[in-house]
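#random but structural
TW: two for the price of one
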Amino acid sequence: MKLADLLDNIEYECLQGSLECEIKSLVYDSRKAGDGCLFVCISGAVSDGHAYASEVAGKGAAAIVAEKDIDVPEGTAVIRVKDARYALAFLSAAWFGHPADRLKTIGITGTKGKTTTTYMVKSILENAGYKVGLIGTIEAVIGDRHIPAANTTPESYVIQQYFREMADAGCDAVVMEVSSQGLMLHRTQGFVFDFGIFTNIEPDHIGPNEHRDFDHYLACKALLLKQCRIGIVNRDDRHFDRIIEGHTCALETYGFSEEADLIASDPELVTGEGYLGISYHVKGLLDFPVRIDIPGRFSIYNSLTAIAICRHFQVSEEDMVRALENARVKGRIEMVKVSDNFTLMIDYAHNAMALSSLLTTLREYHPNRLVCLFGCGGNRSRDRRFEMGEVSGRLADFTIITSDNPRYEEPQSIIDDIRTGISRTDGKFIEIIDRKEAIAYAIHHGEPGDIIVLAGKGHEDYQEICGVKHPMDERVLIREILEEDASSGKKSGAEMNV
């Protein structure tokens, strides 16, 4: 491909070399540079690609895209742009042949609900006969391939690569999570989303390496409504007016508010043997009842969002209802059946806000006891440990403190910090460092009517200790515990209490 063709949709200045040179590959990692490549100098938090320009030229790069002055041989074309990350997104789209044009693209942003909503949308559309790709926090899904995710929203080059693979695999649509970081770093430029969804916003991801304050966080999130054709926004969010300010898309809303276009009404809690759920009625643009075997008010929002999107795909009410009844998301209020007498679930809640929301929701089901098992990651903010300990001590009837990803810290030191938080409350607790032993304790001491939450790990299938990720999937641990109990004749606490 000619350099000039790749640059077609970008504002640039050619400082030296020819635009007619042939480009053999597009790279933004100097280690992958080679003969005939186009190298994009990205200024990152850890390293600056401009520092490697001379090295890349020595490897035979045909051209280099840069924001700053670089010194390379005259034979290497140099393209100056205002923002290299922004340019990379458009270069990537061109390199892969603008694959988004062959797909219906759905981008979902918000503080909470992105992951669950993407899977609900995928479930509904596939139930209606569409072939759908997915990009998100847990994984990218292309046909039968499941690719573990490194970031919620990958770099623009990877997004376009996935789009191309999805289009080539016959996908009709792609639904993806769009993080504030992804929007801030222009990873979703180079195309326009057909649908942009804003679920909600609360203070999060604010810090030295993320957003300087809430205003900046909100502004980055709201960029999605300037990068889509149809925007679908939660009308109930208290920041609604700020979210939609300056939007350039056609706008639709959903929520409990009578001002919304798609309205949820008459919510009711649903309980059964070993599971929890919720039901409600959709009004406004559509009119039908919905039931989901995932608990909580936020499950209504997630499913209503999915309905608002899938309405544009002419999915029947019957297909929506059937798909939502069977929708499941790994590690997001994922119920694991171990007994008819109590409910056990796995959830990714790994900060105080998420844990408080989860436990408050489960309280509405009036359990005999609400039991919370969790740990905190090592080499991370100690404040998170104090806060999560205090939340669990205040909202759970009993807390089991255990290990999460200790990384390079001593597990007991992390547990000590969590205990400090719990000590600010009257909450009862026990400390069990080994996570499998802690889960076994929870199962063996479960009482009729209990809700037991294994929080923090969610979809993760590893435990990071001293730089090594050891295999550890809570679903596997639960299965092993039950198999060991069966072979030894040991009964769970629930069975002993019957």
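TW: number two ↓
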Amino acid sequence: MVGTLVVGAVLAVAGCGGADVDNGAAETPASAVATTLSPRAADRDSELQAEVVQAVARTRASMRARTSISVTFTGLGAETLASGAFDVAGTGVADLVRGDADLRLSIPIFDRLGGGGTVEQRIVSGVVYTKLPTAVLRKAKLPATVRWLSLDPRTSGADRSTLAQSQVDPAAQLAFLGAPDAVVVVAPAGRESVRGVPTTHYALRVDAAQPAGGDPNRAAAIANLRRLGSALAARPVLVDVWLDIDGRARRLVVSFPLSARVDPAPAGRDAMMLVQCDYYAFGVPVHVVAPAGAEVRPYRALDLRGTTG
């Protein structure tokens, strides 16, 4: 049975990550998350930390970018999750300063509900608007005039439906770079290619237990983690980032450790939610507007209990 909370958790995880290529050649967005390596506390290096922290401002200085998404759940042990039905893939554009974004997503779970197709998601002033396939909205018995669901991750609490929503913003993901507790260059040669662009691969970790110390980026990253509430295990979040020659983030992979219970099935000790964001084609136009109010209902209005087994 797919309930409100499960679908909610999957839908708005999206806002970062993925797979098209700068020159237009396409990769498969959800085929695999980039290889990551866990940093070791002993590898703390103040100069490398500074390079990663400065990447936040350097990336945002480009103002806007295309972005692609790959979201993968691992270690959950449930057959439905292992099948990839809850994974997410998509592409779009994002304003890295304002946080607004317009994305086109593919979410296999909707094929199982008989209403597959592209899902549009907009982020405007921090609010997530999701346009689901019409068949899904009708299964939820929503009025025919309703085309969008809205959710504000800042005020939605920490239930399962916000497992992913609080991480949907590509600009917000960058905040994790401003809060590293450890960092190390993990590519022995110092360089790796991301979409044909030479980059340096760094690994770091973020511990929500560490104080913000007045740093706005660290405060934002910790706030993001705390919104995940009980869904997040009491372990540091691991972050891998690939920086180009200008110090901008070209790829960001955030590995969230999940707690022992994640709907719809218990999670294993090593359960993770991996969110991969790529940033490319910097400077592209981005103009995103909120849907008309009459077409929008709060996300909690989506109730698919009993529609599938």
